[in-house]
Queue: 3 jobs
Job 1
Amino acid sequence: MGELVDFFVRSRNFILFVLLEVLCFYFIINTSNYWSVTYFNTSNRYAAQVLAWSNAANEYTSLRQVNADLALENQRLNAQLTKLLQSKPVAPAEYRADSAFADRFKFTAAKVVDNTTQFANNYITIDKGTDDGIRPGMGVISPTGVVGKVKVCNRHFSVITSILHSEFLVSSQLVKAKDIGSAKWDGGDPHLIKLNDISRYKPVSKGDSVVTSEYNSTFPPGILVGRVYSVGVQPNMTFHDITLNLATNFSTLSYVYVVENRLQGEQEQLEKQIENEK
């Protein structure tokens, strides 16, 4: 307490000067319309700037919740869109999709907690496991395209085999050419992937979209894989050399959707039975 008193005694002249300055400023503002308006406008401008900074800070801190809410909304919209597309496919007029078939895909939103892109075989870890209905073999997509397939799970986490894996194949279809091939990463650029088995005699356009085909039980058809980046033909080869720009940016991947095909087991069991009979 004595040190505080000593400080005021030593600084009394400066403190008096400041108080007089404040008093003068007060009288100027209250006795002059020009300075009163100027002070009012200036103070409002700075107050508005401080408020804008405060709002920006609050919005930034709430981004995690906003992203989570958007992920859940996308989950709902994905389910609705997939059901609609499966119930009304491009088919003869007399065809009617079975209701169970049209409603076979279920989506679960999950947060990415670990992700690699620098290896030949990359994996992703998400915060959903068997307690959330996740099991090995389920497909995984992002808001923009294909991500991979669930490899192993425990109660609260799952590890996904990324599409950036040397042994991962996706049955894919060119939207314009309608030709079907398989997309596979060559272990190079994590933004590019190869599309194989497309005949060199089929017309392929740069920029054409490539989506998941009807011929797999893991992903819903029509999920974007990428877009044609380059098209070439290697000597003495019967197929195009096609490179795609991947639809999913794995360096910024935050949320994914695990896709459950409720009829997958039934389909695969029947197909396996046919294979055993050959």
Note: The longest strand covers residues 105-115.
Job 2
Amino acid sequence: MSKMYYVPQGNEIELFKAAAGMNLPVLIKGPTGCGKTRFIEAMGEELGRDVYTVVCHDDLSAADLVGRHLIDENGTYWQDGPLTKAVRNGGICYLDEIIEARKDTTVVLHSLADYRRVLPIDRTGEVIAAHPDFMLVVSYNPGYQNILKGMKPSTKQRFISLSFDYPSPEIEKQILLKESGVEDSIAQKLVAIAGEIRRLSDSDIQEAVSTRLLIYAGKLIAHGFDPYQACIHSIVESLSDEEDVLEVLEKLISLHFTKSINA
């Protein structure tokens, strides 16, 4: 199996390894599609630890993380959730977009994210001491924070923090060349498009173009798709539904790739 491809942007690899060695929980902040999940997967591979990923949402309950009693033909039995599996067996439990989860759900993390490193399970009466290789990692997008959604200070202050951003143009081009197979000149144009969109201040663009979307566009182009159309379907249509914003983005794309006759 080939090694997970990840290009570091700073000292994040060294910091993460140090945190893993000292059993420190890690919080990663950064915009959507900037490489947070890929980084965690790469670190899991590097450290030889399984990664248990949970995508958080409004309906995520403590039972979804910890586990619940189920029933089969033999009666009731307990089934560990992803957090409990990582605590018991070792591994990285990664909670993606932690601020999307209910605050009463994230409280279950407190005893794991401080000196105690234990997980109490009320429904079974267990108090599980974390495996030496257990590591807790959470992430969120600061751009989504508001008064109602945000990490409680009592939770945030249990973690060391890493801030991610979109890669520098040179690194982003390197990622595109590797991940999409597109030629150098096309990768250069895609990176330039991304930079221009990220500099726009239009409030109707709720999220800047991600490296992930650039890779999608590159893959379509490398597969023989028209570059203009590839950008429309991979980038423009993914960023907004507002006609005036779409028009601005389409014009921006046309500055780099000639609009096809059938567009």
Note: Strands lie at 26-29, 51-55, 67-72, 75-80, 91-96, 118-121, 126-129, 134-140, 160-163.
Job 3
Amino acid sequence: MTVDAKKERYNGTIQIVRDGTVENRVLNWNDNQCVGCGICSDICPVGAIEMGPLGAIFKGDIEAPKLDIDDTKCVLCGMCASACPFNAMDLKINGTSTKELPQYPKINRDITLNQDVCVLCEQCEIVCPQCAIEVERELPERKTMVLGEITINKEICVLCGICAEYCPADAIELIPGKMNALELNPYKDIVVDTDACVFCKVCEKACPHNAIEVICYKCPLANRIKKPELYKEITGKTTINKNLCVSCSWCENICPVNAIVVEKPFEGELLIDEAACNACGACIAACPCNALVFPQPEEQGQKLPKIAVNKNVCVLCGACTHACPVNALEVKRTKINMTGVTAPAWKESFEKLLK
């Protein structure tokens, strides 16, 4: 007996449920996780998935879900969940995700970090387009790296504040006075934060009244200063949220010590039709990898393409092609990084993704 599927929407998700006498199937789609690649729509054997107006959505012109699922067509086969590289789709059979079932195929992608090699430079966190990387770093106090003394002769000091303005470490502060009819002075004191001071002598040189004396012990006594070691005095860790990561490999490309390795889901290229492109920017807004850019001329009159792609950080997901209103972009995939395709119907459907 066929049981009709029920569709529910809540909190940016779509859920299709089919309760049978033997089997319960639940298909979930998460709008926040979805990047609008359209792979689910391309692979659906019954045409149950329709993409939304992605260009307008990503540019912020309208608020709408990135796709819709027609519950009257959906057969809950799970092909979309298997094909989604970004885990925005998930099919559960009797409470178990098909991602955990070996008979279901999977498009593989991954990211690995060698924490022992990582130098906590924070560059991967800065460049990640999905904010999937967080670097925690704790440094020893600055005062452990410097030795010296500083004194201010307050009988000579006129509280002009020139030293404070020059101080590169912002270690000198003028303390405001009450400045009223009984206490006229705008400042009542000057203090030095010796934890921040690096005894560089800039204030001493800048003081027009010779009120400051600085003695730096760092150079003659440099061997007394312990060099901080990574993962001893300098501590921390790098954390990667694989649910947010889109495997673009920005981090891998810029890592100065090759501590990150990314496995991408597809091989191929992104083709751009220069004549058709109207430089609307929809593809740039939609790209989850920040792989597309409007090239800027370095000199006047320089001729550049309307739009350029960095193939090193493109994952060939196709979000840009679905967002483009003039079909100026085309993804040519030559290989899918996947496992588990055995059934002929499934194999045929996945081969549709190769263009």
Note: The mean pLDDT is 92.
